[in-house]
Specification:
This protein is 4% helix and 46% strand. The protein is mostly beta strands and 280 residues long. Strands 1, 4, 6, 7, 9, 10 and 11 form a 7-stranded mixed sheet that branches. Strands 5-8-3-2-12 form a 5-stranded mixed sheet. Strands 13-18-15-14 form a 4-stranded antiparallel sheet, with no helix packed on it. The chain contains 2 helices and 20 strands. It has 2 domains: 159 residues, Immunoglobulin-like (Sandwich); 103 residues, Immunoglobulin-like (Sandwich), CATH 2.60.40. 25% of the residues are buried.
Length: 280
């Protein structure tokens, strides 16, 4: 990859390290950085486009976004990065670094003000290699630079200060709140696993479940012989009513044969399994 490295990089880092780092304490508004989830587990030899965007309730004069994308898997390539048009309308100087391997650091400094609001900063283009294992949880995470600098927004107050935005590492699968529950935002009293719908199904089916508290959640799919065919969910999830879609594929991305399958939920010491039928 070929990236333009502006001479202003030295000034950028001097500017970014001048303020005192603090986390925003306003309980009603939370500055946040988001990296889009992959909609379904990334398969080997597959390209994926990922958007990096954020919310901030103050004008910004700078942004520092260091991201680590090789953890724990290594067979993935960051093909290119594009600055989003949202950023092109602002008088910016920018820099992208991809050192050390498996990381990328995006740095912005504005000679105006990036207005408060929601902005898409950059677009990342990845390709997984032949040894990529979709069963292994491999979120894009943040890291600290050798200088100790980490993820930050820099406000435009009279005495510029760095704000550490909230960041949740994206998961491998798009687990959504269940809108059909009618109680979005309400915490259920118990863990539960519902029957998939439709059942039998042909191409894909929806599995709904409830979590009475946040924590690591696993949903695994087994064939009738008890052999695991798919790690559908393996990540930290918030409490609530959730749903996830199974597309009838195994961990290698191949469509499984017709038959009876078991799906099992494990969360917070709770375990439950149910049967479903795939018909072609």
């Amino acid at each position: 990859m070929k990236y333009k490295l502006f001479s202003i990089i030295i000034f950028i880092f001097a500017f970014f390290t001048s303020g005192s780092l603090y986390a925003q304490t306003d309980p009603g508004i939370r500055d946040t950085l988001f990296v889009d989830r992959v909609n379904g587990r990334l398969q080997p030899n597959t390209s994926v486009v990922t958007y990096v965007w954020g919310y901030h309730d103050e004008g910004l004069g700078g942004i520092s976004i260091p991201l680590k994308y090789k953890n724990p898997q290594t067979d993935v390539t960051l093909d290119s990065i594009r600055f989003h048009p949202d950023m092109n309308s602002i008088s910016l100087k920018d820099s992208i670094r991809d050192e050390p391997a498996g990381t990328v650091t995006v740095v912005f400094i504005s000679f105006g003000v990036i207005p408060a609001g929601v902005d898409t900063f950059v677009i990342l283009y990845f390709t997984s290699g032949p040894s990529w294992d979709p069963a292994v949880h491999n979120p894009i995470d943040t890291f600290s630079l050798p200088s100790g600098k980490s993820l930050s927004y820099t406000d435009t107050s009279a005495s510029p200060q760095d704000i550490t935005p909230h960041y949740d590492p994206p998961g491998n699968l798009d687990v959504k709140d269940d809108p059909s529950s009618g109680v979005v935002g309400i915490i259920p009293k118990t863990f539960s696993l519902s029957q998939n719908f439709p059942n039998p199904f042909n191409t894909e089916t929806v599995i709904t479940f409830s979590l009475s508290r946040s924590g690591n959640v696993k949903i695994e799919i087994f064939n009738i012989l008890g052999q695991k065919v798919r790690d559908l969910v393996d990540e930290e999830l918030s409490a609530g009513y959730k749903q996830v879609v199974w597309d009838g594929r195994d961990n290698a991305g191949k469509t499984v044969a017709s038959g009876v399958y078991l799906y099992q939920l494990k969360a917070g010491g709770f375990t439950e399994a149910k049967r479903m039928i795939l018909l072609k």
